[in-house]
Design a protein that fits this description.
binds flavin mononucleotide, 157 residues, single chain, globular, 34% helix, Rossmann fold
Length: 157
């Protein structure tokens, strides 16, 4: 009666925890959409693990209006077709400016490895400039936007 659940990977980097919390919110939305979800820091992910998943959400803090280097390097290090056929979106935490620039960069990196970016993604304001201390949490409205991103991604999959 029930088909096999689709599998999603939510992968992220974080220093002060905001992007990790954003990843959990996206994961809650995916789960609400009846998708099976794994959440992992990019540092613990091996490229071959990606093969198991048909849905991918990638998150990074905004650093100098770009994704963190560790995230960029991971994606750039993948084979050209490594993400082919995967439905993807992106998210970012930023302290005050250029969070959307990070989303654009992430989308482009994913497309270049073959992913189908089906949603533009969500940037949430959180944290301190240069992440020198933890700083404020994302607003409840922004957390809700992240959860909705996960639900929408599940619907597109
Ligand atoms: C090197 C560095 C550069 C940063 N550049 C930006 C930036 O361009 N724009 C911005 O809004 N925040 C910037 N930040 C702040 C982080 O994006 C913000 O603190 C975010 O919430 C951190 O996410 P995390 O808790 O997942 O590490 C920067 C932080 C660091 C460490």
């Amino acid at each position: 009666m029930f088909g096999k659940r689709k599998k999603a990977l939510v992968v992220y980097h974080t220093k002060t925890g905001h992007t990790a919390e954003a990843a959990e919110a996206v994961a809650r939305g995916l789960e609400a959409g009846k998708v099976s979800v794994t959440v992992k820091p990019v540092k613990n992910l091996q490229p071959q693990e990606l093969e198991e998943y048909t849905i991918l959400a990638v998150g990074s803090p905004t650093r100098g209006a770009r994704p963190a280097r560790v995230v960029k390097r991971f994606i750039k290090g993948l084979d050209r077709k490594a993400l082919k056929g995967k439905k993807a979106t992106v998210f970012s935490a930023y302290a005050g400016f250029r969070g959307k620039a990070t989303l654009r960069r992430l989308r482009r990196l994913l497309r270049r490895r073959g992913a189908k970016v089906v949603l533009r993604g969500v940037a949430v304001k959180a944290g301190a400039p240069l992440s020198l201390w933890k700083g404020p949490q994302a607003s409840p409205e922004d957390v809700a936007r992240l959860e909705e991103l996960g639900r929408s991604l599940a619907r597109k999959a």
